């Protein structure tokens, strides 16, 4: 009886259907953030933001197909970390998991920091730290109480976000049509600029890929998803495609309404455009939507890092007593969620530029590893209960891997240096826990 009781407490509860997983992934992406980061992306890509989002989507779509195949074969929490462990070996799995922690660990902090910055701009008399702490406390409470409550809350937040995106797109189109006059809108202009070097667009695509991170984060919810072998692959691909369509359309209409990269403040370019196309009332609605988007994204991001830490704690890569703990009542990794909240307090001492500079390093490394896992499975003949063909097992994942590596090397030098330092620290830690690779890290038990 004791063994069965312990087993029951050490597994997450399956409560999420396909719609809930889709909403969680889209909430993680926070569709409205396409406007919050538009000015930075437009400047980096030399006014080819729409094309940058489209190129990033190509890389992400091929990678999403690989995630779907692996989620069907390995329906457990852990994402790229677990896939690499099982496909290659525990050492490489650990290093991929360590790199992924860059994304998962610091993304909630960045989300809360950006949300606090928006609120501070609207209410300058309230200190930024109050908003940061408020974000952390509320999202931590929702995630600890349970993924079901957080999922229901996301439904309301996503409806609001998508409504504001739709209104922004419509207003941009109306403004561009009125400004174009008798000659009409130059529909192809946002995608084709012969004077812009392809390297500039790729640099923008490396930044744009940050917006797609939610598609892979939902794979950490596999153990809480109903019929994960069927629903998780569908969710991963649909999240990438739906999110990509929103990002491309939003950037495209923004470029039509405001061609060029001249803004009063690049970091708040969307506010300038919002006022231009809709006046003060729309700016107020837009600001409220951005805050809701940050809150929804923070819930999903913190839930994902909690479950990645749980997977690593269950393996005893991290101390199992803490990281492998499941709350007996709520059936959630409560300690890990709290740890993510504490890490978020670092935002009190950082700015957005510093905290986001190396997140994509870990993401692109993990994406590359996932694509190579599919290639490895195809070559080994280990396809599970559904055979993988040469197109899905070799051609698509290799295209995805090459695209992800291209995005990786397109990152700015600071991101590459900081990412390499983080990776080196992980390598040293791995050497220590495996006695210089003489023994493997503990195997996952599922």
Automatic annotation (TrEMBL):
Pfam families to which the protein is assigned, alphabetical: AA_permease (PF00324)
Transcription regulation listed as a keyword: no
Keywords on record: Membrane, Transmembrane, Transmembrane helix
Compartments where found: Membrane
Membrane-topology descriptor: Multi-pass membrane protein
Domain Amino acid permease/ SLC12A span(s) in chain numbering: 33-371
InterPro entries listed in its UniProt record: AA-permease/SLC12A_dom (IPR004841), APC_superfamily (IPR050367)
GO cellular component: membrane
TM annotation in the entry: 21-38, 50-71, 92-114, 126-146, 153-176, 196-215, 235-254, 281-312, 358-379, 388-409, 415-433
An example Gene Ontology biological process: transmembrane transport
Protein name (Swiss-Prot/TrEMBL): Amino acid permease
């Amino acid at each position: 009886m004791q063994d069965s009781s312990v087993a029951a407490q050490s597994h997450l509860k399956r409560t999420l259907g396909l719609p809930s997983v889709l909403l969680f992934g889209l909430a993680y992406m926070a569709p409205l953030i396409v406007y919050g980061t538009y000015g930075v992306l437009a400047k980096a890509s030399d006014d080819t933001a729409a094309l940058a989002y489209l190129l990033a989507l190509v890389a992400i779509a091929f990678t999403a197909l690989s995630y779907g195949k692996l989620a069907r074969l390995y329906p457990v929490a852990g994402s790229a970390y677990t896939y690499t462990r099982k496909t290659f070996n525990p050492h490489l799995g650990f290093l991929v998991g360590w790199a992924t922690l860059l994304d998962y660990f610091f993304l909630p902090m960045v989300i809360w920091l950006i949300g606090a910055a928006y609120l501070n701009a609207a209410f300058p008399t309230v200190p930024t730290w109050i908003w940061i702490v408020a974000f952390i406390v509320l999202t931590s409470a929702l995630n600890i109480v349970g993924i079901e409550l957080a999922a229901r809350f996301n439904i309301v937040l996503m409806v609001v976000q998508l409504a504001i995106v739709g209104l922004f797109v419509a207003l941009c189109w109306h403004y561009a049509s009125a400004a174009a006059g008798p000659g009409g809108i130059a529909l192809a202009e946002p995608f084709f600029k012969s004077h812009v070097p392809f390297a500039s667009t790729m640099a923008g695509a490396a930044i744009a890929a940050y917006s797609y991170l939610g598609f892979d984060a939902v794979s950490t919810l596999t153990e809480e998803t109903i019929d994960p072998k069927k629903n998780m692959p569908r969710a991963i691909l649909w999240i990438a495609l739906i999110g990509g369509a929103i990002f491309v359309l939003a950037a495209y209409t923004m470029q039509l309404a405001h061609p060029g990269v001249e803004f009063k403040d690049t970091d708040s370019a969307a506010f300038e455009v919002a006022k231009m196309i809709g006046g003060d009332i729309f700016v107020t609605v837009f600001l409220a939507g951005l805050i809701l988007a940050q809150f929804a994204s923070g819930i999903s991001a913190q839930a994902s890092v909690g479950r990645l830490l749980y997977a690593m704690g269950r393996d005893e890569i991290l101390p199992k007593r803490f990281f492998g703990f499941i709350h007996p009542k709520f059936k959630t990794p409560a300690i890990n969620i709290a740890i993510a909240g504490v890490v978020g307090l670092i935002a009190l001492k950082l700015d957005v530029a510093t905290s986001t500079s190396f997140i994509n390093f870990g993401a692109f490394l993990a994406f590359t590893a996932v694509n190579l896992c599919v290639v490895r499975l195809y070559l080994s003949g280990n396809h599970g209960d559904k055979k993988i063909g040469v197109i899905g097992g070799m051609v698509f994942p290799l295209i995805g891997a090459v695209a992800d590596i291209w995005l990786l090397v397109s990152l700015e030098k600071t991101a590459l240096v900081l990412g390499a330092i983080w990776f080196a620290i992980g390598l040293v830690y791995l050497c220590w826990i495996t006695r210089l690779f003489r023994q493997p890290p503990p195997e996952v038990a599922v």
